[in-house]
Write a sequence for this structure.
């Protein structure tokens, strides 16, 4: 029987709600999945594995996440597209010190107007999650992607 | 020379000079084949990497010059060699990893081996297989090991930056860059040891020249890049100058940031919002470095395949590798200096948010290049205009101009005989 208040279900819901938020285009709600002090990065696997710190997006606070949303909405000219996340069930790697370490595979499709769907990005989330009065929040979400050659651009967070 | 370079397949360039550019320049396959031969594979130097990527004996890096796969390798004597990634035997592209360390090259197909200079060392069963007094197989008696090296490229290294050419008669690199541009190259690359901090890789569906044009075009910077304007990093009215080499093929845009406010350059811009402030300003928290000697941004274009970026504290080389008329691969190598302190290393990383495939002021460049190529392929007889600031080309003390782009096409027309 699935316990409706189980910790694992809460974690699974965090992952699902996050993906739904982005797929629905509710960018303004995206920073609310994070703590005020947080880290978000989208980094090619080659850099991650060679300990080269460069990411294609590296945000170090909820303020920077909000700035990204503003930048995307108001400054960054781009071809409009939908995105669709397919995310695996999270794999919990560690629970300690009030933090959950978990990972999940993701596949993000990009669908431009009048174009067939294409793979935008494929990789692995490496997450640190904390319990707060408002539910589980990301302290860190690293998107480490295998698809190192990017088809032109990545505008929205993944 | 490719024998299918048929001049009759290239339309007539109908206007004088280089301020009106026909769309077929970006789509015509014969034009493109000629570019590969004349621009990428002869008479020009191409950027292929940084010495910091292959510091030790046996370190190698696989990359591309034009469409051709090549390998850079650090030899025992410290020299950098470049060879084509084609086995002399059956032509297998034997090197598959991007980076690694080997004391020799080995083709897995028939285990032909080469030294790091590309000389053929060994051919299995060259003298055949001896069995019971009988010799089975073996290469013909006149087969000479010495005659079958890998294709070797000419290499030039300047202050840690590696260039290569398939043309062994290419002019010296310093002459190629030219006395106008060389000081700007040496400004960033003055011999300090570089530290690679990571890579970004893009495939952009546009003709390769559009990327050179984009960086040679300061007219768009204060217009397309709303983010830059909004946060005061670059604007149309700031102190700037443009420099070109005597041929018009290379260019420099140097500009100095001034205090942030509204003013003339933002009037009438749909994009300007005076009241906007970042929640977290660390991305634009810039610390001037003594070696800048003034300019807060220097964008350098070396024809045909390199862009060197110093924008505030963020630096990268951007390498162009064409893939047919309608696409190119674009590799960003971000770097700092080996003696950067922790604070500067962090600034370089943070400011990298402006650049690359998701960058606030770069992702949009890739997007508009595709918008252009879409049109070019629909009507190749159409003509693009590049007449901001006039029809000629030469140095300039402002950025409201497309003259550097015109310089490139003046040179391109000469080399291409178009
Ligand atoms: Fe641009």
């Amino acid at each position: 029987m699935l316990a409706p208040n189980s910790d694992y279900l809460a974690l699974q819901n965090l992952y699902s709600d996050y993906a739904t938020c982005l797929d629905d285009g509710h960018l303004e709600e995206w920073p609310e999945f994070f703590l005020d002090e947080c880290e978000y990065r989208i980094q090619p696997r080659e850099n991650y594995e060679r300990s080269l710190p460069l990411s294609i997006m590296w945000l170090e606070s909820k303020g920077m996440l909000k700035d990204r949303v503003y930048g995307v909405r108001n400054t960054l000219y781009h071809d409009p597209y939908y995105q669709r996340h397919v995310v695996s069930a999270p794999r919990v790697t560690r629970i300690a010190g009030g933090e959950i370490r978990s990972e999940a595979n993701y596949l993000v499709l990009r669908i431009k107007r009048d174009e067939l769907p294409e793979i935008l990005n494929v990789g692995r989330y490496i997450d640190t999650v904390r319990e707060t009065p408002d539910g589980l929040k990301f302290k860190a979400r690293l998107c480490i992607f295998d698809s190192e050659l990017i088809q032109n651009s990545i505008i929205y967070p993944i | 020379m490719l024998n299918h370079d048929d001049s009759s397949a290239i339309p007539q360039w109908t206007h004088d000079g280089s301020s009106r550019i026909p769309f077929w320049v970006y789509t015509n396959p014969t034009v493109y084949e000629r570019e590969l031969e004349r621009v990428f594979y002869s008479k020009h130097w191409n950027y292929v990497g940084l010495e910091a990527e292959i510091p030790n004996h046996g370190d190698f890096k696989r990359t591309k010059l034009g469409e051709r796969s090549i390998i850079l390798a650090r030899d025992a004597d410290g020299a950098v060699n470049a060879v084509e990634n084609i086995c002399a035997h059956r032509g297998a592209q034997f090197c598959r990893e991007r980076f690694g360390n080997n004391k020799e090259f080995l083709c897995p197909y028939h285990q032909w081996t080469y030294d790091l200079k590309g000389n053929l060392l060994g051919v299995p069963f060259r003298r055949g297989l001896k069995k019971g007094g009988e010799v089975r197989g073996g290469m013909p008696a006149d087969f000479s090991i010495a005659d079958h090296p890998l294709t070797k490229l000419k290499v030039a290294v300047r202050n840690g930056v590696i260039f290569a050419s398939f043309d062994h008669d290419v002019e010296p690199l310093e002459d190629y860059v030219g006395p106008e541009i060389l000081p700007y190259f040496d400004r960033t690359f003055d011999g300090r040891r570089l530290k690679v901090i990571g890579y970004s890789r893009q495939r952009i569906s546009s003709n390769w020249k559009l990327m050179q044009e984009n960086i040679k075009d300061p007219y768009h910077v204060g217009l397309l890049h709303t983010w830059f304007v909004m946060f005061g990093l670059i604007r149309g009215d700031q102190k700037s100058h443009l420099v070109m080499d005597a041929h018009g093929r290379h260019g420099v845009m140097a500009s100095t940031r001034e205090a942030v406010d509204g003013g003339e350059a933002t009037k009438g811009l749909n994009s300007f919002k005076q009241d906007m402030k970042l929640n977290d300003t660390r991305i634009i928290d810039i610390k001037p470095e003594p070696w800048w000697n003034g300019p807060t941004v220097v964008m350098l274009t070396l024809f045909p395949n390199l862009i060197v970026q110093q924008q505030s504290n963020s630096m990268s080389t951007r390498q162009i590798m064409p893939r047919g008329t309608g696409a190119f691969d674009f590799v960003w190598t971000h770097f700092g200096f080996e003696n950067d302190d922790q604070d500067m290393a962090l600034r370089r990383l943070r400011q990298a948010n402006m650049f690359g495939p998701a960058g606030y002021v770069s992702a949009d460049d890739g997007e508009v290049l595709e918008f252009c190529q879409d049109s070019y392929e629909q009507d190749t007889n159409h003509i693009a205009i590049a007449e901001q600031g006039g029809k000629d080309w030469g140095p300039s003390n402002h950025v409201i101009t497309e003259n550097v782009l015109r310089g490139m096409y003046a040179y391109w027309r000469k080399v291409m005989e178009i």
